[in-house]
Write a structure and sequence with these properties.
The chain is 42% helix and 23% strand. By secondary structure, it is an alpha+beta fold. It has helices at 6-37, 50-60, 62-67, 86-102, 134-138, 160-171; strands spanning 45-49, 71-74, 81-85, 109-117, 120-127, 176-181, 185-193. It is globular, with a radius of gyration of 17 Å. The longest helix has 32 residues, at 6-37. A hairpin with a 3-residue loop joins strand 6 (176-181) and strand 7 (185-193).
């Protein structure tokens, strides 16, 4: 450390921090997915407030958003509740929000909103980022597909996050899909039951 200039040390620390974030996300996703595949593992649904979960994850990822000067707007009604496995859905929210930050350019914007209809809640993450090519959009949620690409600031990904999201949402009797236009952004949505 004594042989390096202060600027070099700062640059190295930033690279280490980026690698740590990537490794931490990968490990978290791997452990969660592996746990869900164990024999005897069961989904444990409860009724919980989805607004609070979104808000918590915005706080968790605020540093990443601030680094790119991205504004995140939580338009989810504060009284919105769903009936699902809270830990699983928390990880889905974390992954979808993290992806939105990853693929949104500096000074961009992400909106999260929810609407209740009939017996389900639709939760959407809308960004004005780089979008997804049509051929990739078609196979995005296929279990055998580990599609990944670098983010707008060269953030790395593994492709495991979306597979995990798809699996966890399905286990909670919900659906997941995406709409996107290259150069204009993407919207990822999930549905979850309101109650039993």
């Amino acid at each position: 450390m004594n042989r390096l200039k202060e600027e070099d040390i700062k640059e190295m620390i930033q690279h280490l921090a980026d690698k740590f974030k990537y490794t931490s996300t990968l490990l978290n996703n791997l452990l969660s997915w592996a746990r869900s595949q164990l024999d005897g593992y069961s989904v444990e649904p409860t009724s919980f407030n989805i607004y609070n979960q979104v808000d918590e994850n915005i706080n968790v990822l605020s540093h990443q958003a601030n680094e790119k000067n991205i504004t995140i707007i939580n338009e989810t009604p504060e009284d919105t509740s769903v009936y699902a496995d809270k830990n699983m859905i928390n990880l889905v929210i974390l992954n979808l929000l993290s992806n939105a930050i990853k693929f949104t350019r500096n000074n961009g914007e992400i909106k999260i909103n929810a609407t209740a209809r009939d017996s389900e809640v639709k939760l959407c993450f809308e960004d004005n980022g780089i979008g997804i090519p049509p051929d990739k959009l078609e196979v995005l949620f296929e279990q055998s597909n580990f599609y990944t690409t670098d983010g707008t600031n060269d953030e790395k990904g593994t492709g495991l996050g979306l597979m995990l999201c798809s699996d966890f949402v399905a286990k909670n009797n919900g659906k997941i899909w995406a709409e996107s236009e290259e150069g204009k952004g993407s919207t990822f949505c999930i549905t979850l039951p309101i109650d039993k």
